[in-house]
Specification:
Length: about 400
């Protein structure tokens, strides 16, 4: 329910001003990165009496805490659900029960979720049960394959059915929602808050020597840097082995350093460590904190990834992205020429990477393509829209 206060304007009459009660709900590092600029926007521009609160599931505890610290975000509620070897059943059940408990203590008018994680879907579902309105940040992305990415594609589809207002990053994302029957008046194209976060981070790291990290001291930055990340569930097993074999082959190139911050999931670390360890110019390091990773992206020459956020961020830095997935919901980057899908076939990954390393024209075409994902003002637009809703 929206609450109202009555104000007198210089004796000319009365008007109603809505008091916002907002809860931001997220649980992973990517969500936190993309929520951070929006949280700061709401905290900075909220009116007297507004209540802006934050709840985290800590679906990824350590990686989430790094981002919270960097952006100076202090949660009001921390469900702390992460457990060793947790399954999707565990994450879903614990997060749903935890948010139910939060609603007993704080009932917002709006609950904001971001993206496509299990935390995102659970937040929208719990808010629906409590008849709390849901705002979905980064709405409308689709791969059109319910098993890829898994479980993200279904998370975002289900969240779309539960959300009351949809903040799409691009016109194509809006088109997807319209085709699913979402009324146009409930969709706003605002850009991606991940670009807002990137610009905030670049401003900060320009004043800090984050490149002096111990884990990066062995990297020879006089050479070209191939940055690699990978974590998708649908790539567990043979696909990850194929990825590692490709990296092993690519690393034979002279004047190349491969830096791979290895995800903490054991199903990622096992094939990576068994195939790529002890190769002199391949640096397998633990996941970096967000500012350090942005710094490393900026120093890289080519990026191999299955990450959605990197597909959005790298074009703002002029870095070509090769996407190690069979499909991507971020087709705007592929169409703009900033990204190319290479799948998990070792030969294709190798061929496309070597083409960028050896062919300056091919490299230049991708590096100079314009970023279709935003201008760094998405958070401002979202705040203005929410403030205008009765």
């Amino acid at each position: 329910m929206i609450h109202f206060d009555i104000y007198i304007i210089r004796g000319n009459g009365l008007f109603f001003q809505a008091i916002m009660k907002v809860l931001f709900f997220f649980g992973t590092r990517p969500e936190a990165i993309k929520m951070a600029p929006l949280i700061h926007e709401f905290q900075k521009r909220s009116e007297k009496g507004d209540e802006i609160k934050i709840c985290v599931t800590a679906q990824h505890r350590e990686m989430l805490d790094q981002v919270l610290h960097f952006f100076a975000i202090r949660p009001d509620f921390d469900l702390d659900i992460m457990r060793p070897n947790q399954s999707l059943f565990d994450v879903t059940g614990e997060a749903l029960r935890g948010l139910h408990g939060v609603f007993k203590n704080y009932r917002p008018d709006w609950l904001f979720v971001q993206g496509d994680t299990t935390t995102t879907f659970v937040g929208a579902l719990a808010a629906f049960y409590e008849k709390v309105r849901v705002g979905h940040i980064e709405a409308g992305l689709r791969s059109f394959d319910k098993h890829s990415p898994f479980p993200e594609e279904m998370n975002r589809l289900l969240t779309a059915r539960l959300a009351d207002i949809h903040f799409s990053p691009t016109p194509k994302a809006k088109e997807n929602l319209l085709k699913e029957g979402i009324p146009e008046e409930r969709i706003s194209v605002v850009g991606n808050t991940g670009i807002d976060a990137l610009f905030l981070c670049l401003d900060r790291i320009s004043k800090e020597a984050v490149g002096e990290l111990e884990s990066l001291k062995r990297v020879d930055f006089r050479k070209r840097i191939l940055l690699v990340t990978g974590h998708r569930r649908e790539s567990f097993g043979k696909p990850f082995e194929n990825i590692c074999r490709a990296i092993q082959t690519i690393a034979r190139q002279e004047d190349l350093e491969v830096v791979y911050p290895v995800h903490l999931n054991p199903q990622v670390r096992k094939p990576v460590l068994s195939i790529l360890k002890d190769i002199p110019n391949i640096h397998l390091i633990d996941p970096l904190e967000y500012p350090s990773f942005v710094w490393l992206m900026n120093k890289s020459h080519v990026i191999l990834t299955d990450s959605g956020g990197i597909q959005e961020e790298a074009p703002s830095l002029g870095k070509p992205v090769l996407v190690m997935r069979e499909v991507t919901e971020r087709v705007e980057g592929v169409e703009a020429g900033t990204a190319k899908i290479v799948g998990t076939d070792a030969e294709k990954i190798t061929a496309e990477t070597l083409n960028l390393l050896r062919n300056p024209a091919a490299y230049g075409t991708m590096a100079k393509a314009a970023n279709p994902y935003g201008d760094g003002k998405a958070g401002r637009r979202i705040f203005d829209i929410i403030r205008s809703i009765p």
